[in-house]
Amino acid sequence: MKKVLILHLLIFICLPACKKVSLDQLAFPSEKLTKYDFEKYDDPEIIIPPNYLPNPLEQYLIKIPSIDNESGEVYNIYGLYMGDTTNISTDTIIYFCHGQARHMDYYWTRQALLAHTGGLYNYGVFMIDYRGYGMSEGSSTEQGLIEDADAGIDWLISKGASGEKTVYYGFSLGAIPLIHRAAYRSDFIPSKLIIESPLASVDNITQSSTLLNTDSDFITSLDFNNVENIKEVEVPLMWLHGKEDSYVAISNGELIYDNYSGQYQEAWRIDSADHADVPLKMGLNNYISAFLTFIRK
Amino acid sequence: MCIILVAFVCLTACAPSRFVEPLEKKSLAVGASIGGPVIEFAGAPIPLPMSSIEVGYGLDSNLTVHGAWHTTAALFGNAQIDAGVTYRLLHQQKFRPNLSVSPSFNFIYNFEAKSARLWPILDLNAYWNYGQRKNYFYVGVNNYFELKKTMAHEQEQAHHWIFSPQIGHVFKGKKRPWQLFTEFKFIAPNVDNSFAFVPYQSILGKWGATGFYLGYRYTFSKK
């Protein structure tokens, strides 16, 4: 009996050390879809009043290959372009990377609002679903976010887009790949970068959650560090964040903003706004006005 | 994303107070505990299931040396231990409780990153034995000390001292070879959790987090 007890104890103690568990996948609460509903999706992240979206939208679902640079495997991911794809080489393009939830349907109203900003199709707006989101193949990883963002950029390039006429807009999780690409991709440098409710870094989140100087490696293999990456970004930066953001505290954005040393920066700290309602709490007219002013600067 | 963090956020409160009452001289005890801060998960409050295996030995009737291996941390590729001693400062007299102090440390090492951290801990508990079995309940405070001066991105360390009041009860078996213990911990009740990335739940509202722990211990007596 005693031997059995000791054996069980040894197994209980030793086994966990041999087989490492990872919960990184839980950072990407995506939902798989067999088809997109877009404007018919009934539970969008933010509800935009119809008078801000008065026109039916010309939109194109696009399948793009995204390469896993480590394994060489190719995943078909999906993007949605609002505007005339034949004018991409001459239009100013907003490249929008969405947050961590669900899929493109959930963020469709945000994209539609941007497509109406300054008049219908004043800007072409392109959004992608990362691997594992919506109809996109594969499963999400941090490196995959960057590779998928690159796949979207490659598609824009193939349609004649130029960096000088492209604005990156990253919301929450979407700020991770777009800050990274704005910092390190040299063949396509966007004209401007907009980040809304971004996370500072995985270390900052870990330590603010534990109150201790904890190494994030104790918890996760995620490694993103927007605070460091933003140092390499030179294009003008617009940062928006809710002062009452209960999910990603505004201090995250402050760290990124403080570390930016590029050409121009502006901050919008929005009273009473939580994580996802910055445009609404800011007032849609104010949001649109700030957005246009920044882009036209 | 917060889900990956909630799985391991309770570094400061991943276990109940160890051996509040010292063991009898030359007694050996082994046990296990599970529990952690309560978080909101899928709309319901649940305590995080952080587990550890503990061992203690009575060097003297007033002094027990103890250590624990954190099994949940091991699942994530970490070797995490805590170790220390419990010393009884005062014996119970009428309504005056026993008083024990437990200096210890918590050490964690990640094999992949080759990264380590160490935090000193000091528990102070008052406990009252009652009944024939000498069960006891206790109130006390757990203190964690962060020695590093900065946090990520050179931010100033905001919390060098994290204190967590606690209450608990230890129920002993009829012939006293085993103990069943429960503990509530009021983790960092001075810290506003309104903007915490992890959805901590606290009976104090926006202050700190409430921890809940269960444990079982078997004692091998000297007899």
In short:
The complex is a heterodimer of chains A (297) and B (223). Chain A has 297 residues and is of the alpha/beta class. In chain A, 33% of the residues lie in helices and 18% in strands.
Keywords:
heterodimer, A: 297 residues, alpha/beta, 8-stranded mixed β-sheet, 8 strands, disordered N terminus, B: 223 residues, mainly beta, 10-stranded antiparallel barrel, globular
Overall description:
Chain A is α/β, with parallel strands linked by helices. Chain A is built from nine helices and eight strands. In chain A, a hairpin with a 6-residue loop joins β1 (about 60-65) and β2 (about 75-80). The radius of gyration of chain A is 21 Å and the shape is globular. The model of chain A is unreliable at about 1-20 (pLDDT under 50). Chain B has helices at about 1-5, 70-75; strands at about 30-40, 45, 50-60, 65-70, 80-90, 100-110, 115-130, 135-145, 160-170, 180-190, 205-220. Chain B is mainly beta and about 220 residues long. In chain B, a hairpin with a 4-residue loop joins β6 and β7 (about 115-130). Residues about 1-10 of chain B have low confidence and may be disordered. The longest helix of chain B is centred in the N-terminal third of the chain and has 5 residues, at about 1-5. The termini of chain B are far apart.
Head-to-tail CA distance between termini of chain A: 78 Å
Distance from N terminus to C terminus of chain B (CA atoms, Å) equals 52 Å
Strand order of the largest sheet of chain B: 1-3-4-5-6-7-8-9-10-11
Strand line-up in the sheet with most strands of chain A: 1-2-4-3-5-6-7-8
Computed structural class of chain B: mainly beta
Helix content of chain A: 25-40%
Portion of residues in helices of chain B? under 10%
Report the β-strand fraction of chain A as a percent range: 15-25%
Detail the poorly predicted runs of chain B.
2-8
Mean pLDDT of chain A: 91
Topology of chain B as a string of helices (H) and strands (E):
HEEEEHEEEEEEE
Per DSSP E runs of 2 or more residues, the count of β-strands of chain A stands at 8
